[in-house]
Structure formats: structure tokens, C-alpha cells
Amino acid sequence: MDYDTPLFFHVMSYATDADRDVIDMVSGNPDWGSPPGIAEGLHEYADLGGEDFQYPPSEGLVELREEIAARRDVDVSQVVVTAGGGEANYLAMARAMEREAGDEFILTDPVYPYYPGKTTMLDAKQRFVATAEDGTLDPDDVREAASEDTAGIVVNSPNNPTGAVYDEESMRELVEIAEEYDALLVSDEVYDHFDFSGKFTSALTFDSDHRVVTNSFSKSLAITGFRVGYAIFPPDLVDVAKTRHMLTNVAGSRPSQYAVLHALRETTREYYEENRRLLESRIETFTDALDAAGADYTTPDGAFYVMARFPDFPGTLSNVEKLIDEAGVAGMPGEAFGSSRDDWVRFALVTPRAEEAAERLADYFSDR
């Protein structure tokens, strides 16, 4: 089976090798720093030694799983701590296929590229549902695409790349569609702390045996390198997922989990609120510069990405390389996210140089 190398790696390598200063707006690595509890937890862990340096329980440290379960109002047995949100999504999608209730995933267009990549790994089929211009998803379109072949429906809210946030009614209907077609709704909620609209609703709001919620601390605690995520499964589906996790990874990183647990207990609400305010300010500054560049763009209700479409400048890989070479700004080509936005470019606003990048883009397109 052939796998395509993610386009992210190509663009990042091209930007790194450029003969000029380039502002990275490709990767979603938060720049605002982790809360103090992360470093404190690591220092505390370093002094433990002995048995605490050995394998943790495969499904995650008991105390961390208990903390997650309490915060999400589920039984601790339903929680599997994973190697980031990526593994959580893989386990959930694999579980959908193992139910043998279909062999097709419904995905949105535009889509986070790793979802279709995982369908390829799982030897599954793909069916795409286009979102609205603002990135919102109409559940009626999902219902129309669903069939007896549907194994799973994969959604991401707040959304990468559009910044859309699915409200309570949309999420309720998505859960109902999964139940109606005996499919599994996989709700990736990794950006749940970055909701600017106040409309975000977790799929956990609705009691159902047909939904799995995945998440990660990579973005919310600014620790993408720690690789600590989790999945919450229905009781009847969790045991097989734990087995697949054990066979794939044996267990996750014990020091990372220990530090995350310490940070969850010590971090105040102000940390998350301050980061949201920072992002809202960056979004306003960046989109003002896009106005100056004559671009169309999405104003995100959540997450930290902006998609932009520049006049006579389709978001192809070659044009993204041209932006790197001539403007010194690296974004992601729209074609990486599906066919509906292949003339757009996605920018991640997780750099202190976001305002400078916006000025570079405005200057570049005003001179064209």
C-alpha cells in the first residue's frame, strides 16, 4: 500500500532551506509558552526515580485518566491516554472499521489531511461533504451522504483549517445521524480551548454509544512535543481500543503524562483566557492586512488558522513556494485540504511575527 508524504513536511523543508528569512505560518506550534505547571511537573518527576521511571499503565496514568474523566464527566474506564490527538483519532477510526458496520468514512471538504491519510491506512473508502464558505457544516448534507456503507463520520470543531465552530444543534444532529446509520461519530475537539464564539459544543454533551471524542493537550498547554492526548469511547467499544493502543505503542510517555497531570491541577482559567485574547488580537491584525492585500479570507470562530484567497494567485504548492521565496512567509497550500479550497492558502497564527507576516503579504500583493 502506498502512502503519500504529508505536504506539511515538504513545505516546512522548503522554508527551512530558503535563502532568506522566512516567517513560519505552517505548523501549529503555539508560541506563547506552556503554563508553569508543566516545568514544575517535570522537575518533580525527575526526582522520583525507581519504579516511577518504568512503564506506566498502558491506557495511561491512573491519576491522569481520573482527572480527564472528572473534567469530561465520564467513567474513568472510558478514557484511553494516547500519543497525542493523532493516535486518538487513529484508534477511534480503527474502532469504527472493526465494528464491521461499513467501510466508508464521511469527511468534510476542506479537511485536515491526516484524516484521509488514516482512511488509507485502514483500507477504507472516503466520501467528502463540502462545507459552507465560512466552514460551517450542514448536517443535512452529512445525512444525504450517509448510507449503510458508512463506518464513521469524522468532524473537527473548532475546525482546522477553516476556524468554524459547530454549535449544539449541529452536533446533536451529527450524533443522531451516526445512530441512524449505525456509524461511529469521531469528534476531534483538540481546539476546544480556542472557541471565540461561545458556541462550541462537545459531542460528549449527548449520551450515545455511537460517538468517540478525541482531544490532546498539545495545543491547550502549548506542548506539541509531549505527545499526550486521549480518546473517550463508549463503554462497549473501549476494551478493543485499549488492546490496539497496547499493541501499537505499549504505553505512552510517563514523564509527559505526569507533567500534564500536574499542569491540569495547577493551571488557572486565566492562562487559557489570556491565550484566547492574544489570538483574537492577532486575527484582527492579520485580517486587516489581508484587506490591504485585497484578499478574501475566513474569520475564524475558533482554533488559530486563517484561510486567504489572493487575486490571481491560486493556493497551489508552487505559489506557496513563491511566497516563501519572494515574500518570506510560509503558509500551507489550500490543495492540501481538499478540492474545495485549492485556490486558498492557510496561515497558522501561532508566531509572535504574525503582524510582520501580514505586512509582508500586504506589501507583496500591493506590488503585483
From TrEMBL:
Q: Does the keyword Transferase apply?
A: yes
Identification of the protein by name? Aminotransferase
| Record InterPro entries | Aminotransferase_I/II_large, AspAT/PAT-like, NHTrfase_class1_PyrdxlP-BS, PyrdxlP-dep_Trfase, PyrdxlP-dep_Trfase_major
Does the record carry Cell wall biogenesis/degradation as a key word?
Answer: no
Q: What is its EC number?
A: 2.6.1.-
Which keywords annotate this record? Aminotransferase, Pyridoxal phosphate, Transferase
Q: What is the lineage of its organism?
A: Archaea, Methanobacteriati, Methanobacteriota, Stenosarchaea group, Halobacteria
Q: How does it assemble?
A: Homodimer.
Biological process, per Gene Ontology: amino acid metabolic process
Q: Cite the Gene3D superfamilies for this sequence.
A: Type I PLP-dependent aspartate aminotransferase-like (Major domain) (3.40.640.10)
- Name the PROSITE patterns for this protein: AA_TRANSFER_CLASS_1
Family as reported in the entry's similarity comment: Belongs to the class-I pyridoxal-phosphate-dependent aminotransferase family.
Q: Which organism is it from?
A: Haladaptatus paucihalophilus DX253
State the needed cofactors, names only. Answer: pyridoxal 5'-phosphate
Question: GO molecular function terms here?
Answer: pyridoxal phosphate binding; transaminase activity
